[in-house]
Design brief:
By secondary structure, this protein is an alpha+beta fold. The protein has four helices and five strands.
């Protein structure tokens, strides 16, 4: 009986973790049907029109931007200057340059990432794990019959 309950709990937790996971792929990876297990940024010459119509992320780099440095204890230490990458979410970008340039100082990096969870509206392509609920119901029926 204990093992049946343990397996049921394991299935619930595992399916919940899968539902929370967000996997991101580049358009390039999707087009080539590559394994889609992690994030890949595509190069800055790729036309964003070729990206699937999901939430796109555009990244730009501001050279010599001031940012605060934190030490290993997460205490504010000092302010330094360096290249800082920013990521902008845009569900329907009309002009990449308008989206990404800040104060006309940013070096625009035209990269896009496509996620299986649409971070623009919170929806997900993943179907909720109804199968996990069915398995739990079957386990409970078996437990009652035994």
């Amino acid at each position: 009986m204990f093992l049946k309950v343990f397996y049921a709990a394991f299935i619930i937790v595992n399916s919940h973790r899968k539902g929370l996971a967000t996997n991101c792929y580049s358009c390039d990876a999707l087009d080539k049907h590559l394994p889609m297990s992690s994030c890949y940024f595509i190069n800055n010459t790729t036309n964003t029109a070729t990206c699937p119509s999901q939430c796109l992320f555009f990244q730009y780099i501001v050279p010599a931007e001031e940012y605060t440095y934190y030490d290993t204890d997460l205490k504010e230490n000092t302010t330094v200057r360096g290249n800082v990458a920013h990521t902008v979410r845009s569900c329907a970008p009309t002009n990449i340059n308008d989206t990404c340039v800040v104060n006309s100082t940013a070096a625009v990096v035209r990269q896009c990432v496509v996620c299986d969870t649409d971070l623009c509206n919170g929806s997900s392509k993943e179907v909720p794990a109804i199968s996990a609920l069915l398995i739990i119901a079957i386990i409970q029926i078996i437990a009652l019959l035994s």
